[in-house]
């Protein structure tokens, strides 16, 4: 018996960011990306987790097939991203991320996780692995939830 195709998918991509090098301006630009993405993703019923390391963005998007297609099309023409590349697109049985949009940048509190993932060399070569990006996103989400006193997730 054939399995029914799921319309729930996840897409993992990475891009180079066109953002300011000046920290205060860059923080405002990332804040604007967050506000816009949260609003659009909530409307499209998309959950996502974006990781920023240096001038690279990596994101896992989850939702219905058409919503993910439309969301990615919007990202791929956004002038704040360049060299946008899909790493993985596959069907999933359930969502793993809890918010419409979360953005985490490398900093002193999560540096250990970024070092362990060691994604920067692969990003610079243009060859990051979807599994490594996904694992880092799950780890960062779990750490954030733990800091908030949430010990498990009901999805």
From TrEMBL:
This is BLUF domain-containing protein. PROSITE patterns: BLUF. The lineage of its organism: Bacteria, Pseudomonadati, Pseudomonadota, Alphaproteobacteria, Hyphomicrobiales. It comes from Methylobacterium organophilum. SUPFAM superfamilies: Acylphosphatase/BLUF domain-like (SSF54975). Residues 8-104 form the BLUF domain. Pfam families: BLUF.
């Amino acid at each position: 018996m054939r399995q029914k195709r799921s319309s729930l998918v996840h897409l993992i991509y990475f891009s180079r960011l066109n953002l300011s090098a000046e920290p205060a301006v860059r923080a405002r630009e990332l804040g604007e990306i967050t506000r816009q993405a949260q609003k659009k993703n909530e409307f499209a019923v998309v959950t996502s987790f974006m990781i920023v390391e240096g001038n690279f963005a990596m994101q896992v998007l989850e939702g219905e097939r058409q919503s993910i297609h439309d969301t990615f099309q919007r990202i791929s023409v956004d002038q704040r991203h360049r060299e946008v590349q899909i790493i993985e697109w596959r069907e999933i049985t359930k969502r793993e991320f809890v918010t419409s949009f979360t953005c985490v940048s490398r900093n002193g509190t999560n540096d250990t996780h970024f070092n362990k993932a060691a994604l920067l060399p692969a990003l610079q070569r243009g060859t990051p692995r979807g599994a490594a990006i996904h694992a880092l996103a799950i780890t960062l989400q779990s750490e954030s939830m733990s800091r908030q006193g949430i010990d498990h997730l009901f999805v």
